[in-house]
């Protein structure tokens, strides 16, 4: 992964935890990469002691609340967010990322493989909701 350890470990003198240069950003990120990076991020800061399943769930719920506030008074929103400003889209990216990161951490501390669980759930949903041929 292209993220430098000095940024994860906080050895950077500016306020950016990661390099914001898009040339150095990872394009396809796996859940495993996120899990490992988040684990190290928490470890070097001594935050592991606070990352119980309960605490992570409560943090996740808080972030979902922040995400919902973005949409609260907008009414229906078109796919691709064509009427949103770049600033609003960036805010949405940040809140979605917060939700994802807490979800990955929660699955990790619970000892669950989130990727495999998601794939299994898709299969279960496919059985529960079979394709219906609407052209008949």
Automatic annotation (TrEMBL):
Query: According to the UniProt entry, what is the EC number of this protein?
Result: 3.6.1.12
> Which Gene Ontology molecular function entries are recorded, alphabetically?
dCTP diphosphatase activity; magnesium ion binding
Which residue windows does the record flag with biased composition (Low complexity)? 11-23
| Cofactor(s) the protein requires to work | Mg(2+)
Please tell me one Gene Ontology term that the record gives under cellular component. cytosol
Q: What class of enzyme is it?
A: hydrolase
Going by the entry's taxonomy, the superkingdom of the source organism is recorded as: Eukaryota
Report the catalytic activity: dCTP + H2O = dCMP + diphosphate + H(+)
Could you tell me what this protein is called? dCTP pyrophosphatase 1
């Amino acid at each position: 992964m292209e993220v430098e350890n000095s940024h994860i470990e906080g050895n950077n003198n500016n306020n950016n935890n990661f390099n914001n240069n898009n040339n150095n950003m990872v394009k396809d990120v796996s859940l495993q990469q996120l899990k490992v990076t988040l684990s190290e991020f928490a470890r070097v800061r001594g935050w592991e002691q606070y990352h119980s399943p309960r605490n992570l769930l409560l943090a996740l719920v808080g972030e979902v609340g922040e995400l919902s506030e973005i949409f609260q008074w907008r009414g229906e929103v078109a796919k691709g967010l064509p009427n949103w400003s770049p600033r609003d889209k960036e805010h949405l990216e940040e809140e979605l990322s917060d939700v994802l990161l807490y979800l990955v951490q929660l699955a990790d501390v619970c000892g669950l493989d989130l990727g495999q669980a998601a794939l299994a759930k898709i299969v279960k949903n496919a059985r529960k909701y079979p394709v219906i041929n609407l052209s008949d």
